[in-house]
Amino acid sequence: MLRFLKGVVGGVSGTGLKDLPYNIGDPYPSAWGSWTHHRGTSCKDGDGSPVSIFSLSASNAQDSLLAAARNGVKRLRTVRHPNILSFLHSTEVETVEGSSSRVTIYIVTEPVMPLSEKIKELGLEGTQRDEYYAWGLNQIAKAVSFLNNDCKLVHGNVCLASVVVTPTLDWKLHAFDVLSEFDGNNGNATGPMLQYEWLIGSQYKPMELAKSDWVAIRKSPPWAIDSWGLGCLIYELFSGMKLGKTEELRDTASIPKSLLQDYQRLLSSMPSRRMNTAKLLENSEYFQNKLVDTIHFMEILTLKDSVEKDTFFRKLPNLAEQLPRQIVLKKLLPLLASALEFGSAASPALTALLKMGSWLSAEEFSVKVLPTIVKLFSSNDRAIRVSLLQHIDQYGESLSAHVVDEQVYSHVATGFSDTSALLRELTLKSMLILAPKLSQRTISGSLLKYLSKLQVDEEPAIRTNTTILLGNIAIYLNEGTRKRVLINAFTVRALRDTFSPARGAGLMALCATSSYYDVTEIATRILPNVVVLTIDPDSDVRSKSFQAVEQFLQIVKQYHEKTNAGDTTAASTGISSIPANASLLGWAMSSLTIKGKPLEQAPLASANSGLPLSSRTSNASSEIVVDSPSIAAVQINSSTDLADQPVPESPTSTDGWGEIENGIHEEQGSDKDGWDDIEPFEESKPSPALVNIQAAQKRPVSQPVPQPKAQATSLRPKSTVKVTKDEDDDLWGSIAAPAPKTSTRPLNVKSATTLDDDDPWASIAAPPPTTRARPLAAGRGRGKPAAPKLGAQRINRTSSSGM
Question: Residue limits of the Protein kinase domain (predicted)?
Fold first, then answer.
């Protein structure tokens, strides 16, 4: 006997079951009619995605079951609706076993499971069960209304077995074997309208269908049969039992009171008076609950305005706690992630997403939430970026090092240069979590350049937090980078900041990283800068300075004792920091991980400080800006010994850390070798007028008649890089502002012109004019015409007016 395969629906054909690109798995215990419902996986592209496979077999190719099954396949393939089972593939296979043959029809659909099995799995009770049933019935009623009212089709057998559930807990209608067109226009016809009505169980048939009264059926509304079936589904759902006979429908003890009246109208004995499913959706009180309203809002989110979205997402975190947990995680969470990913959700939705994600296991969080978060980092919406950074402590640890280095950091780094101070500070604080996951190439080539710029940011709190961050991420820097970065950043920048908490942060960061410095660096570069702050105007800075001096002197004493004992390795290997440093690092990290708005940040107590830095480096820039100038003024005038060591007037300079020298000993070499390869990012170009002024300031100038006094008091030119031995007494001389007057090439001015010694601009001022204004002539207000010049003679232009 000939063996063959043939496709029966939509031109689908194959060469045998071995060519079916799906693997058939174990069957479910129940399915509609004679079908068997199998679990399955896809073989396409080797992804192994789950599917459902329905199969029906018969020994005769002309069996009526196969004819009905072919009708169901055709209808399922052509009817598309969100609440109808999605068709993927179908095929029909005929196999020969001995002298007999067998025909099997396979339908492949999206992955689903029978509703009866899903209800047992969820185990919902009470209000949560009723809310979920309301959502499911709402979906099935939409599918039935679509078939009856829009397509003029009759399903014929709506019941518990004809409903399946997706992984996202959506209910979908299937079992289309009996599906037929409604033939209401042919009222005189007496033949059956439903060709395969014999497949319907007698307990599910309304009175007119049980009597095969096709004339009455054709005169009835299109929804009459399926409204009755929807009533049967409601009974089976709430009673928890399969309908055995029609009379059982009169038992309404298990039906919710808010649904009872509609249930009775669906099961009216008169077909013309049965309730239309569309009216059920519009008017039923039962469908008005928090779960249905929430999911419905999410599904039409694109139609809502920004005010409605913002209000909804701010309430969603609290609302999610009141809804069934499994429905939130399997239905709401995917909807929310999709809305955020495609830009239809507002920034407050991220808070709800992370709260729902916290209810997942680590593995599920990495699969369902993290991919959306990673994509959100590329968003241009500043509110989304701020929200991501504010909540980074909730998901940062779940990000892999590869994802952070290759996908996340490049987008986060744009916040370092943002015009918003809040976004710059949040970006800075996020590095406490992201920096450990960055490669050395990214840290040295990008992160440190941004931090160099932020340490001279116009916001004092940002400068302070940059120093704190450097102290915390020092452990992740390689040895060479530490030597180039830390001392310059903490001493040259932080200890000379006009903002007192920034100076305090520099002192504490030095103490926290003391194990990274050798004794030579401590004695020649750190202690001289720290000792100066023991007379700082701010008492907190003075206290921290004394603690730092004691700590570093203790390290030097340990080195002295080891050297006397014959240990020559102490200077090169460095000395371990004292135990007190552990509390400093913990305090610094706590100050960076406070969440909330600036006014919501609570101060953290520290054993090593009188006032915690976190309470003084909040985002309340209004307080910072007012206090900062007064602090700087007091610091400058605090002692005459510091006249040559002024605090920089403006912290907004963008020079790199490597361009600043300590100026202590020439033998130690310039500190420039530490930061010459780390330069700040290019700033915006200044205006042409500012360029001209800056060029004039850089041009060497001199007094017309050098005086002996000027020679004795002249300072180094601004371009001086090396520090001479005569300046060893001047600790900060290398970064002191140059004097306004220098002795170099004189300007081209007349000797009679005198310069005002009190005018710093006199040396580069333009010479006075050498011409005098001519008197105006009477009449037309013009003077005598000037004598013709060479150019005018060349033109040889004549005029009859005698000009």
Answer: 1-287
**pLDDT one-digit tens code per residue, 33-79:** 889 999 999 887 667 899 999 999 988 878 889 999 999 999 999 99
DSSP 252-294: -TTS-HHHHHHHHHHT-SSGGGSPPHHHHHHH-GGG-SHHHHH
Tokens 């196999």 sit on residue: 95
Measured CA to CA, the distance from residue 377 to residue 356 in angstroms comes to: 19
Alpha-helical regions (H) of 180-223: 207-210, 214-219
Cα–Cα distance list, 717 to 224, 545, 647, 668, 712 (Å):
99, 33, 19, 22, 14
Give 483-516 as a DSSP string.
Answer: HHHHHIIIIIIGGG-SSHHHHHHHHHHHHHTGGG
**Residue for token pair 């289309």:** 176
Distances (CA, A) of 379 to 343, 413, 422: 9, 13, 17
Short-list 238, 232, 230, 227, CA closest to 130: 238
Ranges 406-420, 655-669, 787-801: which has the least confidence:
655-669
Of the candidates 373, 386, 388, 291, the one whose C-alpha atom is nearest the C-alpha of residue 330 is 291
> What is the arithmetic mean of pLDDT over 472-495?
92
Quick one: angle between helices 460-473 and 621-636, nearest 10?
90
For residue 722, pLDDT over 50 is answered with no
Question: How is residue 6 annotated by DSSP?
Answer: E
593 vs 591: CA distance, rounded Å: 6
Distance (Å, whole) CA 207 – CA 327: 38
The burial of 460, by beta-carbon neighbours within 10 Å (0-12 exposed, 13-18 middle, 19 or more buried), is given as buried
- Give the predicted TM-score (pTM) of the model: 0.66
pLDDT over 60 at 202, yes or no: yes
Which value, in Å, is the radius of gyration of the alpha carbons in the chain? Answer: 42
Q: In the 8-state DSSP scheme, what is residue 54? A: E
The DSSP element (H or E) to which 23 belongs, if any, is strand 22-27
Mean pLDDT taken over the chain: 76
- 731 secondary structure, DSSP code: T
Distance CA 101, CA 5 (A): 12
Nearest-angstrom CA–CA distance, 210 and 200 = 10
Give the contacts of 792 (CB within 8 A, at least 6 positions apart).
none
Alpha-carbon distance 530 to 512, whole Å? 14
Q: What is the DSSP letter of 24?
A: E
Both tokens of 275, joined, read: 């309730």
In angstroms, what CA-CA distances link 75 with 6, 53, 56, 80? 19, 17, 16, 9
Residues 6+ apart with CB under 8 A from 621: 421, 459, 460, 461
> Which of 7, 398, 438, 397 is CA-nearest to residue 412?
438
Shortest CA distance to 511 belongs to which of 577, 590, 604?
577
76 SS3 class: helix
Three-state secondary structure of 91-136: EEEEEEECCEEEEEEEEEECCCEEHHHHHHHHCCCHHHHHHHHHHH
